[in-house]
Amino acid sequence: MKFLKVYFSSRWNNVLVQLDVKAFREVVGDRVEKLVPEVLRLVREKCFHSFGLENVKIVDKGSKITVFSSKSSAEDYGVIARAAYLLERELLKRFTGEFYHVVSCFLSRDVLPELCVAVYKVDLEEGLDRREGYRILSLICKSLYREFDILAGRISGSRVGCLVLGGGDVQKEFLINVEEYGWMRLTFEGINSVELGNRFAVDFLKRLVSREIREKLRGKFYVSGREVFEKRSIIESEVISVLPGFEFSVDLLFDGHLALYIHPRHRVVAKKSVWDMYGRDRLEVLRNEVKLVGRRVHQTPYGETAVIAGIRSDIHPYSKIDELGEKTVLQYVLDFFPDTCESISEGEPVFELVRGSNRMFSFPSLLKIIYRLEDLKAMGLSREAQRLMQIPAKGVISLSKKYLDVVSPVSLGFLDVEFDRKPLEVEFG
Fold first, then answer.
1. What is the pLDDT of residue 157?
2. Alpha-carbon gap, residue 239 to 283, rounded angstroms
3. Is 243 in contact with 233 (CB distance < 8 Å)?
4. Rounded to an integer, what distance in angstroms lies between the CA atom of residue 260 and that of residue 108?
5. Which of 406, 377, 350 is nearest to 268 (CA)?
6. Phi and psi at residue 395, in whole multiples of 5°?
7. What percent of the chain has pLDDT over 70?
8. What is the pLDDT of the chain when averaged over all its residues?
9. For 239-342, where are the alpha helices, taking DSSP H only?
10. Which one is predicted more confidently, 109 or 327?
């Protein structure tokens, strides 16, 4: 989920729904202070009161606001998590105009075995650039999977976690040969059981499963975070492309099943790149900077999303800037998108983008505006687009199963997780 998180506190034996105010601000912008009270009211009603859970309290710590009922327990985790997920989807549709449909929940066929997260410290060189350190850790995780069939993920700037079966022996040390960096030593520090009371371990499992789903689908689909879209448009227009797809999330339920939520949706993007929209004219792009800053964009060729933070009119594709060391901006972009060399023109201005907490550079020829409902209304296309994207109830279930078939099974290295094709429950609204 984007801004609503659900946790179980073993200390208090309560289920907590947490509003991430910073993440919510990225969705609604300056309206955040006005909208937060309404969101908290809906959380109380839909996640607690609707299940007969009274005595709801709110703890406001500024950037994180937690809502919980002292009457809740671990048995309520599944229904509260699902209610929070559906509420967030409803709010996203209301505040952003995204085209969502019904969410379907599919459970793993079997209860997961006892799992643990083994934490290892990596001996990295002191003073190493953070991005370089993250790259090394990512390479180590890939090596652990390739050489030892161990699914691993980055935990911090110098630690990785490995998913292991509970009750088994844990290797105390690894020596990994990391490409041009040489041999790296991983030293065991501790172990965490994957259970609802252990937020760190459960979140780690969910991140790993989500990552494996992304890796499985990347190349066949446009994949950006938990959003997956087909590489085809369902509408023929000179102005827009409507890409069918879905958003997914995973959760660990109280009974030990893994839940996969599939939410069919569409993305409406400009047919032309930003560069082509403004006649491939550098000055025209710069003149429209105010209109472009803050817009969400679809990055070709892989379909990742980002937000335009600004246009660097002071540099060009062959400029070397401090943030990139010895690389030119063009070299930096081609490292991520090697197949785009021929589509980038020398006269293009450099765009600065934000994706989560990361800042990056790109060019307008690689970016397509993601249209909002108000954009389509202004172009007179909203009714036509909504008509084409309307899916009947039975069609939603069928579509969810279609996407489930390309996701399932999910490999966790030593374990393949298959999901039952019968949805747990489908709600229509």
1. 81
2. 22
3. yes
4. 8
5. 377
6. -65, -35
7. 90
8. 84
9. 274-277, 282-287, 289-292, 329-336
10. 109
Name residues whose C-beta falls within 8 Å of residue 219's C-beta, 6 or more positions apart in sequence: none
List the Cα angle 107/112/115 in 5-degree steps: 140
Task: Please tell me the distance from the alpha carbon of residue 154 to that of residue 133, in angstroms, as a whole number.
Answer: 10
> Any idea which residue has 């790296």 for tokens?
184
Q: Is the peptide bond before 423 cis (omega within 30 degrees of 0)?
A: no
Token pair recorded at residue 155? 């935990």
Residue tagged 């827009």 (tokens): 240
In the chain, where the domains are located:
4-96, 115-193
Ranges 64-68, 171-175, 326-330: which has the least confidence: 326-330
Angle at 297 (CA atoms; ends 138, 339), nearest 5 degrees? 55
405-426 pLDDT, tens digit each: 999 999 888 889 999 998 875 4
Within 10 A of 354 (CB to CB), how many other CB atoms are there?
A: 15
What's the rounded Cα separation, in Å, for the pair 366 and 360? Answer: 13
**In the chain, what percentage of residues exceed pLDDT 90?**
25
CB 151 within 8 A of CB 412: yes
Quickly list H helices, 185-257. Answer: 199-217
Compute CA distances 156 → 133, 145, 159, 188, whole Å. 10, 19, 5, 15
Rg (CA), the chain: 23
The sheet with strand 56-60 has its strands ordered as 4-9, 14-20, 64-69, 56-60
Dump pLDDT digits (tens) for 57-110: 999 988 899 999 988 887 788 778 888 888 887 787 766 655 544 568 899 999
Rounded to the nearest 10 degrees, the angle between the axes of helix 199-217 and helix 393-407 is 90
Q: What is the DSSP letter of 8?
A: E
Would you call 402 helix, strand, or coil by DSSP?
A: helix
Q: How confident is the model at residue 39 (pLDDT cuts 50, 70, 90)?
A: very high
Helix axes 21-28, 32-43, angle to 10 degrees: 120
Q: Which residue has the tokens 């996640």?
A: 47
End-to-end, the C-alpha distance of the chain in Å comes to: 19
Tell me how crowded residue 126 is: count the other CB atoms within 10 A of its CB. 5
Q: What is the pLDDT of residue 426?
A: 42
C-alpha torsion sign, points 94, 97, 102, 106: negative
Can you say whether the dihedral through the CA atoms of 194, 199, 202, 208 is positive or negative? negative
Tokens 């966790």 belong to residue: 412
Can you tell me the mean pLDDT for 279-296?
89
